[in-house]
Design goal:
Shape: globular
Biased composition (Polar residues): 293-303
Radius of gyration: 21 Å
Largest sheet: 12 strands, mixed
Number of helices: 9
Pfam families: Gp3-like
Protein name: Hydrolase or metal-binding protein
Number of strands: 12
InterPro entries: Gp3-like
Region (Disordered): 270-304
């Protein structure tokens, strides 16, 4: 296996609850009140719809044509393999991760290379005070009971979706006796209003049992499916172990293919930031600055990296 390359679940499509729209000549993310399933192919008008998108819309009888539930199964029994979520700070020009942490420890680019450091969460981290460190979650699901290891990926930076999905995964694993991958589940779009949303509806993703299943029925179906898989030689534990090894094969899980999406989702106004400062930096300079702090351009990232280098140098020279 090639070291330094994250081996992640094969992706055959995307699940989103938003879309990119053009406003004043700029592409900006806009939230939606329904799911959309797309392929991984994008053209000038947006992502191409996956055939399952229309198939699922035709199969439902409510919601006025809006797709608000998706029947899914999970690929792994381990919640942490199905949902990958960390605090992530990305380079605003390249989309590459600069610091990724779980609230206890983080992996961070420094002038000395990638280091493992304490992660106090964004609220208490000096590097994250710019507000650009956000939770970033990726949920892998098998849609519509397709018997394959190809998955649809749902990416989110929302606390509501990440918190809800993490709780559901953990609870369903517990009550099913570690048969999470055999449960008949569905993604469900929910709405809520908060003071921060100015009482307007915001939408997040939940994971529930399918509408036509009671808990008892779902548990029995999971046991039956697990028995059938064992009889044909399906090795769920080995699959989980292989996935864990693949995730651990690199310092960061993000692939080059994700970079355009990360730039659009996380930093849609990066051009505005550059124009305000009156300066810009190239990808090459951004990457070189990770190694040589003296050559770091005076952008937001450049200032952060220089401060980080100065802080680390001061800590190394200060008495204990």
């Amino acid at each position: 296996m090639i070291k330094g390359l994250a081996i992640t679940p094969p992706i055959i499509g995307r699940i989103s609850i938003g879309k990119m729209v053009e406003k004043n000549g700029k592409r900006l993310p806009e939230k939606d009140d329904q799911f959309t399933l797309t392929t991984q192919v994008q053209h000038k008008d947006g992502w191409l719809l996956h055939p399952l998108d229309e198939q699922l819309r035709q199969a439902q009888t409510t919601s006025n044509g809006k797709l608000r539930t998706i029947p899914v199964r999970l690929l792994f029994n381990s919640p942490e393999l199905n949902l990958r979520a960390e605090y992530s700070l990305f380079d605003r020009q390249t989309g590459r991760p600069l610091c990724v942490g779980n609230g206890e420890t983080c992996r961070r680019y420094t002038p000395q290379g990638i280091q493992q450091l304490p992660c106090p969460s964004p609220e208490a981290c000096d590097l994250a005070r710019t507000g650009h460190c956000k939770p970033y979650g990726r949920l892998h699901v098998v849609v519509n009971d397709e018997e394959d290891i190809g998955t649809f990926i749902f990416r989110t930076t929302g606390f509501n979706s990440i918190r809800t999905l993490a709780a559901r995964l953990s609870y369903y694993q517990a009550i099913s006796g570690d048969l999470l991958a055999c449960l008949p589940l569905q993604l469900k779009l929910r709405g809520k209003s908060t003071t921060q949303s100015h009482r307007s509806a915001i939408y997040y993703v939940d994971l529930t049992l399918r509408d036509n299943h009671t808990l008892a029925e779902a548990l029995q179906q999971a046991k039956t499916l697990n028995q059938q898989r064992q009889e044909i030689g399906f090795q769920q534990q080995a699959l989980d172990q292989a996935a864990q090894a693949g995730f651990n094969n690199a310092q960061f899980e993000f692939s080059e293919e994700e970079i355009p999406e990360l730039l659009e989702e996380f930093y849609p106004n990066v051009d505005d930031d550059n124009s305000v400062q009156g300066q810009s930096s190239s990808t090459t300079n951004t990457l070189n600055s990770s190694i040589n702090p003296d050559s770091t351009p005076k952008t937001t990232n450049g200032v952060l990296k220089q401060k980080l280098g100065q802080r680390l140098q001061a800590q190394s020279t200060s008495p204990n």
